[in-house]
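MODEL INPUT / OUTPUT PAIR
PAIR INDEX: 1
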Amino acid sequence: MARFKQTFKVSASLSEVWQLHDDPKALIELTPPPVQVKILEMDRPLKAGANLRFRLGLGPFGVVWHAIYDEFEPYKPGIAQCHFVDREVSGPFHKWTHRHTFDDLGDGSATVTDDAQFELIGGSFGGIVTALVAWPAIAFMFLFRRFKTRRMLAQGWQA
């Protein structure tokens, strides 16, 4: 299975970082153009076992992605780390698991860690396709998300 992992610092409190990532609607802003996201269904409040269905589209073409939250440890005052894990139930990947971890640095800033493990298609040929096609696309998407997360937090994202 392929893996993309990044950790980056943001100039925002852990509470602010959590508020941004606790809102699945932020996914719309965090997805690089020209891909468009439309939330079709989401369980609220988010918690372990919650479902999220959304459409990823490029013009008239698209795919519905159904994810479930396998783990969900929300932000609580006085706690230095929170996280959640989403896993694809159905969608564009053969397998997809994404762990989001947020750590308080104690100085009004925090870190965001994205740890995604994925296979575009299964099997040994799938490993080659995943490495050549999916990994570069996922790396680009997460680099965009790093840029956009910092920008949204600097502009005072409100859920």
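PAIR INDEX: 2
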Amino acid sequence: MFSWPRVWRRVGAIFLLLACSPTQPVRSSPLFRHVITDAGEIRLGEVLPWAEATDRGASDAIVSGGRSGARMVGVTRGTNGVVREITTNYPQQADFAALVAGYSAAFGPPAAHRRPLGAESAEVVIWTDSATRFELTRDPRRSVSTVYSRLSDRADR
């Protein structure tokens, strides 16, 4: 039999449970700030430590091969030579969904996920912390590599 007092007691009990339940913020690990290549380590906020990179002007360098299976790593430096951004091109057969799942397990849920609007649109997943921004992108229009990441120093933004 229907009874408003009984309904309100149940609704009140649900609100009480929700109000008293501990709400833990989603915890995530700090983002990494370096990439290890065959030539050595590249770290955001530091001067490129070795000269094996192929300089492409005053601010860019290219390094081939990375220990993570990357094909090519691009480095953008400021006028003072400090590394501001590291772009990593993954092999063509890279599994984007598996990469997203792995990074989410390591760093927590992404701060943003821009899904493609059409078959030829890019999909971008972004993780951030106070010092670093990490973007993982799948872009079918790119000829170099359809999956790439961009690690950047937030101090420069």
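PAIR 2 NOTE: The longest strand covers residues 83-89.
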